[in-house]
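Quick note —
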Amino acid sequence: MKYTTLSFYLVSFAITLILYGCDLSNSNSLSNRTGWELGPEIINGPEEELTEEQQNAYRADAERLAIRYVNNSNSSETSVPDKLAENLYNGLIHIATSGLQKAQEVTDEFQIHARVPSHPRQVVVHVDTTATWTKAWKNEETLTGNAEIDELINEFDLSLVEYKMLESSSHAIVTLQSDRVVNVFAVGGLFKKHQDITEAGSEMITDGDEINVLFFSNELRYYFEMGFGDCPSGCTSSHTWLFTVSGNGSVNFLGEEGDPLPGKQHLPDKPQF
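Predicted structure written out below.
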């Protein structure tokens, strides 16, 4: 079933607002609630039908979607409800195992995954290395001896992943990883308050595929968008598929829209998650 171009782009505009954090005040705002209560609770999907690699990729997708939902609702909220990420994961599993031909296109043939934030559990920090406390990170130690920084590290269960000194500069890029899902944008904002940190948050991937989701009382609507063409210039072409998942796990394909699909040999390289 095809939906009209006008309605498609109206929905796409709504997704853009959700993805990029415009403040749409409503009673479902996370900042007005004690926990996540939006949309149906989706039963567990048959994840055993997928490989461990596929399961991990969809779990990372769900964490990205949950982080964006939280960040849009309240950009200072650092915690991400486990139930929200799990619900989004269940929806993705049901789509991937539905057996629908169009679902196989987005999951198996084109392997579309979410891309923002680039890593749902990593905070990337740009630090001025003239500060003496940064020597600990250079020496591959997580705790720095700086009380303010170490308090954040302990609060969000962070560990040092990588220290990379920038050439011809007194700055380094430090990657910290949490053992749980956190709003990496909000946590980065807390690090940025420190005088020796010039930037912090998530490493951005600007081009390529994406998954978005809209919440309704009786279903979740997943939009799988594939970017192709001249992706170094922002991906000059795109194609989007729309699926709904209800609480009992049933999946419906509502339609697709966009540029004609290319052959796989003309697709850009997929990022490795």
